[in-house]
TrEMBL record:
Residues 19-58 form the Insertion element IS150 protein InsJ-like helix-turn-helix domain. It comes from Arcicella aquatica. This is Transposase. Pfam families: HTH_28. The lineage of its organism: Bacteria, Pseudomonadati, Bacteroidota, Cytophagia, Cytophagales. InterPro entries: InsJ-like_HTH, Trp_repressor/repl_initiator, WH-like_DNA-bd_sf.
Length: 63
């Protein structure tokens, strides 16, 4: 029997803009940490999310 998990391994190119913004918003609202977002959404590098926060977030730089 196949057991489903929430973990989906992704490649560099398949993150939509809405996906990125959704994650940035969840982190900024305090619903997720960058590490939790990596685990939940199968993002391989935390630095990917940090880059999205710098690019799309409302934080003042330091993430």
């Amino acid at each position: 029997m196949n057991q489903e998990t929430n973990y989906v391994k992704r490649t560099q190119r398949d993150y939509s803009m809405s996906f990125k913004l959704q994650i940035v918003q969840q982190i900024e609202r305090g619903e997720l940490s960058t590490h939790a977002a990596c685990r939940k959404y199968g993002i391989q590098a935390r630095s990917t999310i940090v880059g999205w926060l710098r690019k799309f977030g409302t934080f003042d730089g330091a993430a």
